[in-house]
Amino acid sequence: MALSASSPVVLEGENLTMRFGGLVAMAEVAFTLKRGEILGIIGPNGAGKSTLLNIITGIYIPSSGEVRLEGERLNGVPAHKIVARGIARTFQSSRLFGDLSVLDNVVIGRHTHTKAGVFDAIFRRGRAKAELEAAAAHAETLLKSVSRGLHEQRHRPAGELAQADRRRLEIARALATDPKVLLLDEPSSGMDDADTDALMDDIRAVCAQRPDLALMIIEHDMRLVASLPHRVMVLDYGQKLADGPYEEIRKIPRVQEAYLGRKATQHAGA
Amino acid sequence: MSELFFQQILNWITLGSVYALIAVGFSLLFGVLNIIHFSHGDVSLLAPFLALTVISTLGSMLGDLNSLSVFVLALLVAIAITGLIGVLLDLVVIQRFRKAPAMMALVATVALGIVLRELIRHLFPNGSNPHAFPRLVEGDVMVGSLSVPLFSLVVIAVSVLVVCALFFMLNSTRLGLHIKAVSQDRDAARLMAINPGRIFRATFFVASAIGAVGGLFFSSYAGMARFDFSIDVGLIGFSAAVVGGLGSMPGAIIGSLLIAGLDTFVQAVVPNGASYRLVFVFLLVIGVLVFRPAGLMGRTLVEKV
Amino acid sequence: MTRSEHSARAASNPVAGMATVVVVQLAGAVFLRQFLLIEDWRLVIGLLLIFGAALVLMERVPSLEARVEAAFARHSRLALLLGMAIVLGFPFVLEGNTYALHLCVISMLYAVLALALNFQLGSANIPNFATGASYGIGAYASALLALNFGVSFWVALPVAAVVATIFGFLLGIPSMRTRDSYLALVTIAFGVVIHQLLNNLEFTGGPNGLVGIPVPELFGHSFGDPLVIFGQELPSQANFYYLSALLVLISIVFARRLHDSRVGLAWNALRTDELAARCQGINVTWYKVLAFAVDAFLAGFAGTIYAFYVGFISPDNFTFLVSVTIMTMVIAGGMDNILGVIVGAFLLTLLPEKLRAFSDYRILFFGVTVIAFLMIRPQGLFPQRLRRYGD
User: 3-state class of A181 per DSSP?
Assistant: First the structure.
């Protein structure tokens, strides 16, 4: 892995607080993410994990605090521009474009790397078409590199895919934006152990091909959390409980109580 | 206070009450179903035609009766039937769109409104023409030196009563609590052994029956029933609910008063204002939506991701 | 058997493929001709049954559908040339029936309007109830230019389209902040406001509208005169027939190019999931406004041709019900399917005219059609197709 102690910070959050009416969903959370690093985020439901992702991707505007990508402030930048700057994400409840083909889903991921507007599409068709076909070719290559099985299904509607393939497609779609930072929101939810293992291999392969890509993964599955991330951050009630290598954070009693619980203790013992 | 000014104020509140009776239905249905029942205005304005039908049927069946009692009976029957028609529309059409994209339910209910209007036009004798519709009560009451039409007082009083009854029902009865539960979380309500289907039907009945009262008042106010009244009145009722904030009952009432106020003001002040009233009303709606997309009393919803 | 194998088989036999194209196109033309010319309502029903049977057959036997599709894909140039020949020759086989020609013109104008609305309703799922208003703005803008400033039709045409587009942008602005039901209300309100203004303003002629819109001329030939081609005389409606046909062609080119472009993809993306679309870098607001503008642009063109064709316009030509009619065509024909939308426009323009006995029930029929399609077959007669690249 490319990650080393001297790797530069690519994404950082400072003092992030999010209030909805009277409810505080996140209180003064800070984090950093280095180039090539994989950061796991764990915490019980409602701990603020998804809120954090939504703040980073511009869907929520934090009540206070700021997010910086390579030193540039992201607060107030609209979601679609944040993508163009290099942050891509997947969703917990995979939000694919179900009535479009698998390939089209990935081609849409190339949106920020293509330019044709209405005028080009109508009056400079050759150029617009060449651009889109290049995007499609890029999407094919990307699909193939993420998963052969998915590539074989590229002409099917995305809505017909099996659960595991939906996750893969979401990852492929996000990768199509050429991100510097990739945020995965519970990639293994709804998967059995075999699917999760395959997913972990796919994620490892993706990272191996892109040594500079930084990853943030929200997860519940402890096997994934134990083996994939370099570092794990624990959130609880919108606050940061702990931050460090899995081997360290799992020993903290408060973390065990708050989240890991019996199941994790068993894993740890096993 | 000049007499004319007083008349306008009274007009405003009367009209506002009528709009509110229709607007609360839009808001209630939206709160519970999370879709717009665009044809709610058309359902509401079925009531005057139903009442006329009941009057003529009873008249031919029973001969000459005490006309006031026949009239009141006809109104009550019309209100009940309108409520049932609301339920029927849900069963036959609207419930099919519970899980569909919002756009589909929307277009379907717009079409449903058209179908209802056209059905009146074709099924009611001479349905294309306006039909005289009696005033509920004639006469004036003297308040100090001012004469106040009894009709306005009745409309305002009944509207206040109906709205109070609705608030009481929503806040203090079992049915009301179930309605609230379903509107907040359909699946959680189901787990608490509340049958959402039954709650939907009850909501449709209540909303349509209240709308029917508004429809009857409107026809009585205008002195006639027309099949195409519902285009204006339905749009205004919906607009009032939107301006106030869909899903908020007090919002629907405030929205209605606001729109009725603008309506009355434009007709009184702007030359030829009656022809332009909808232009002003809709400019208000568009303005509110641009600056406060969730309406005046609506809460901005945070999308769940 | 997969679709690609079928394509391979069809491709391996070019004669069969070409024959398929010719047979399908000619059958379509013959069908439309008969539909336009017959009077007896029983025959109309019979033709409808045949049409329905053909659709059912295509749906039940996917291999047949795949074959036709592959043949058209492979011989697209032949299909285009033959299609143009059929459109050009069509007025000659109508036996000088001016009414049939008139219906063709109106159907084609509605086809343009339906294609315009399809950018929103079909591609982006934005319920716009104001297409009729944009149509009216185009018609009034061009008619006013011609009547007050003596501007010729050919100049008024693009100017009116631009005026309609500007209004389309204005209408699109609230869409930046509002969605679904709210946006639908804004479009309905917009339509009502435009109608009420046309009905009351002095310079638009109030409820009487505008009369005496001059007949266009081209190279000294007045569109009010019969058209003589190859020694054969066609009724004056033929002038507008060819003009509308050209507009339909332009609209199809627009629709296809946009659909197959990055813009069409972005619309499709926000149709399914606005938030996911934003997270792929799509400026959802901008694309929505764009859909409004494109819709208004084409509707403005159609409005101009209508105004100059009929010669007089009034606010009642551009009501909310016109918008609902256009919406019915898109939904029944098939959202986001160009052929489907055009078929929908023709069917729903011609049916009420052909079934005269029911013409009074036309609006009721449209309402029921919309509800029935949304409940039973929301994808319409011709469902949308997945895109293919590099074929």
Answer: strand
